[in-house]
Structure formats: structure tokens, C-alpha cells
Write a structure and sequence with these properties.
The protein is an alpha/beta fold and 332 residues long. The protein contains 13 helices and eleven strands. The chain has two domains: 190 residues, Bordetella uptake gene, domain 1 (D-Maltodextrin-Binding Protein, domain 2), CATH 3.40.190.150; 119 residues, D-Maltodextrin-Binding Protein, domain 2. The radius of gyration is 21 Å and the shape is globular.
């Protein structure tokens, strides 16, 4: 049985088996009448952007790699689910959805980690990116005569300590973006942590706080309704998902804090399997149906080779070390 499972990967490495044929050969290696499913572990609760996109991707991959099942394993900021992936067999049949939090932020945020983010995984392929957006309550912005990012910076510098911002908790993406904004914008604002992104958004809508950094998927409905105004996106370039809204980097060069996620496999997964999976994901992300589903989440498809994705993750992890340490965030 072990030889039967290894044979497809060997043939693929010798160029005797196509990417599409890899899935069929793996299925043929399973017991008669059965197809061995690929598991995708989402380390968050059902219903969020990562979960929705993982399920859409799993459906798009079924012709290339066979049956695919999505499992939700939430907890500890995503560390529990990704820790399960790290401990799984390196056979290409267990994949995890790794994101900016679990691969770049949590290693500096948590005193103890159930995996080594640098060595526990083989990056397979990115999936998508979502810009974060600096938003203000529209009524509050009007009262303070703030209509742009430059206005907010000027007000914060003139009135130290009078502005406050909410986030989904200490060490969250919104918290780190807020602290980076304070540092780069040379202004003072009070951080108000909430127990999750939804309570933080409700606090902004009720004017308990002045501004938030939220992901575009969560904020877009209230931006469209006019309850919130978008002052800037946190990507280096303007986002086609929010036309007319400038990037933070236009006023604060180098400012970039966005949400990204992709597939990772346990360390030691054969390179030929990783490449085959990467090709399957890249092809799936060209599907109009999948791209439409991502667009509904305000997400942009993100493709790269395994080597490029690995370099991207390492660069992000190094960058967030300074951001987390400057924020003083720590979870014991």
C-alpha cells in the first residue's frame, strides 16, 4: 500500500504523469471503490471570508485533485487548526489555510506557539488578498470636519489623546494597523480593544470610537450605506474594489497592512506534490465562478509559485516582528 501511494508522486517527478493525472493515480491507489479525500483545515469558525473562500476553492479543485473536505478547527487566533496541520502526515492529503495572522503575526504575538511558523509548513499557493480600510463614523467625521486622511492626521497632531480607535482585540490586525498609523503619522490616539471585530464595528457605528481599521469585506456595506466614510485603504496601491479611495502609502510611504491567505502543507510534503497542488490552485483561481465568489468577499485572487509564496510569507513575518513589538502586544 505504501508503494502504491508513493508511485504517483514518483511518476510525476519523472515527468510521466501530468498534474491532472496525479489526482487520478492517487485515487487509484486507494482501496477499491474509495477515493481518498483531501482535507483542507480552516483554523477559524464557519462563515468568515477564509472559510467561504476555502469551500469555494475546494469545489473548484475537485476535478483536479479529487474529493476535498473542509474542516473548521477554530481557536487561539487560528493556532489550534494550523497546529493540527503541522502535525499531519506529509502526504499532500492534508492542507491548511494559513493567513497573515497565523503565519506572520502570531509568532511574535503569542508567548507559546504549537508550531514553528518558519519550518512547520510547505507553502503551496496563495489564494486571495483583502485590503483593510481606514473608516470613520460619517457623523463623527462631519462634526470634526474630517474628510480625508490628511485631515485625520492633522487633527490627531493638533489634539493629542482626543482621538480613539477600536479593534477586535490586542494584537488583532486592526490594533497593529492603528499603532503603525500612530507611529508613522506621528499622532496620539487611544486604543480601545473589543472582544472581536463585530463589537468593534458596532462601537464605531455608535460613535463610541472615532475610527477603525477594518477589512473591506466587513466594512463595505456600511461604506455603501453612508454610515461610514472610507479615508484610505491599507495596501500600497489603490484598490479597484474601492474606487477613488487613496492608499495610506500615498500620505505615509511604506504603510501596508492587508489580509492575505493561502494553502500550506505539512513540512516534508514532496516538492512534486506541492507543485502539482500549486498548479491546480492557480488554474482554479482563473475560474470566473471562483473569481466572482472572491469578489463578493471584496477579495482579489492572489497567485504565485510555491517558492514565491514562501518568500512572501518570510518577508511578511519579518516585517510584522517590528510592528507587533512596537505595539507592545503580547498574549501569554
Amino acid at each position: 500500500m505504501r508503494l502504491a501511494k508513493l508511485l504517483p508522486a514518483l511518476l510525476c517527478s519523472l515527468g510521466l504523469l501530468s498534474t491532472a493525472g496525479l489526482a487520478q493515480a492517487q485515487n487509484n491507489a486507494a482501496p477499491a471503490g474509495q477515493q481518498e479525500a483531501t482535507a483542507i483545515v480552516v483554523p477559524y469558525a464557519p462563515g468568515g471570508p477564509l472559510d467561504i473562500s476555502a469551500r469555494a476553492l475546494a469545489d473548484a479543485l475537485k476535478d483536479a485533485i479529487g474529493p476535498t473536505i473542509v474542516h473548521n478547527r477554530p481557536g487561539a487566533g487560528g493556532n489550534i487548526g494550523l497546529g493540527q496541520v503541522a502535525r499531519s502526515a506529509a502526504d499532500g492529503k492534508t492542507l491548511g489555510v494559513g493567513a497573515v495572522a497565523t503565519l506572520a503575526i502570531n509568532p511574535w504575538l503569542y508567548a507559546q506557539m504549537p508550531y514553528d511558523a518558519q519550518s512547520a509548513f510547505e507553502p503551496v499557493s496563495p489564494i486571495a488578498r483583502v485590503p483593510n480600510v481606514l473608516v470613520m463614523n460619517a457623523q463623527r467625521a462631519k462634526a470634526l470636519n474630517i474628510g480625508s486622511l490628511q485631515d485625520l492626521i492633522a487633527y490627531g497632531r493638533k489634539n493629542p489623546g482626543k482621538l480613539n480607535y477600536g479593534s477586535g482585540g490586542n494584537g488583532s490586525a486592526g490594533h497593529l494597523a492603528g499603532e503603525l498609523f500612530k507611529r508613522m503619522g506621528e499622532l496620539d490616539a487611544v486604543h480601545v480593544p473589543y472582544n472581536g471585530a463585530s463589537p468593534a464595528q458596532l462601537a464605531l457605528l455608535s460613535q463610541e470610537v472615532d475610527f477603525n481599521f477594518d477589512n473591506l469585506a466587513a466594512a463595505s456595506a456600511n461604506i455603501r450605506s453612508g454610515k461610514l466614510i472610507a479615508l484610505a485603504v491599507t495596501t500600497l496601491e489603490a484598490s479597484e474594489l474601492l474606487p477613488g479611495v487613496p492608499p495610506m502609502a500615498q500620505s505615509l510611504p511604506g504603510f501596508a497592512v492587508d489580509t492575505w491567505w493561502g494553502l500550506v502543507a505539512p513540512a516534508g510534503t514532496p516538492a512534486e506534490q506541492v507543485r502539482a497542488l500549486n498548479q491546480a490552485v492557480t488554474q482554479a483561481l482563473q475560474s470566473p465562478a471562483l473569481r466572482s465568489q472572491l469578489q463578493a468577499l471584496s477579495a482579489t485572487p492572489f497567485t504565485a509559485s510555491p517558492e514565491q509564496f514562501k518568500h512572501f510569507i518570510e518577508t511578511e513575518r519579518q516585517r510584522y516582528q517590528g510592528i507587533v513589538q512596537a505595539a507592545g502586544a503580547r498574549i501569554d
